[in-house]
């Protein structure tokens, strides 16, 4: 059976299909979700910045209306992408996650980064084109490494000041230019908690509800050092026994999956599945 959501470059000049509307306040939703008949949605007086054909949902074409600002539509509200990730249908989250990435890219590439002239949307590929200097800009992805560091029955978890109160999670950080995934992982762990790691294994990946972000998940074993927390980034970090864990990240997140997977393997429990 084919996936319900598939990406594709669709010409906005074709008629019909479904559409989602995204503003700085999130996605437009009603009691039935975020997908609306496209022709109807375009008659609602929305402040449309641009439109992109982004793929198919259950075989039907889907378009993104990227908005300059949120508009009040009777009976509807605006909902952030993270809420979709944590609740409801995961296929819808994947659709909206892709839409958010394309919308952010389209908003940020209205003008050429080389000469400053307006850019033109290319209909047959996912690119913006500058007629003045022939520059083409494509959607970018910023890879981030997220890792569970373990020491036997213990897992190393930390808190950022930005986390929900009381919640501990795995360590993570964005790759720098020229780094391999493994180099990034080792550097981030060293910077955040001053610990050395080894025996690194890739586990899985997840599109994260932040602009351009792709989380690459790893497991690594403790190789030495004492925890020293990075100022302003880590407010607490410690070793937790798998039998006595603190409040953890929400289900469906790759951080929670990395923890649950290790605990399951350590205790001989059924292994969880990473939503994808």
From TrEMBL:
Binding site for a divalent metal cation 3: 188, 192, 233
GO biological process: one example: NAD+ catabolic process
Example of a GO cellular component annotation carried by this entry: cytosol
UniProt key word Flavoprotein: no
Superkingdom of this protein's organism: Bacteria
Keyword Aminoacyl-tRNA synthetase in annotation: no
Protein name as catalogued: NAD-capped RNA hydrolase NudC
Lineage: Bacteria, Pseudomonadati, Pseudomonadota, Gammaproteobacteria, Pseudomonadales
Name of the encoding gene: nudC
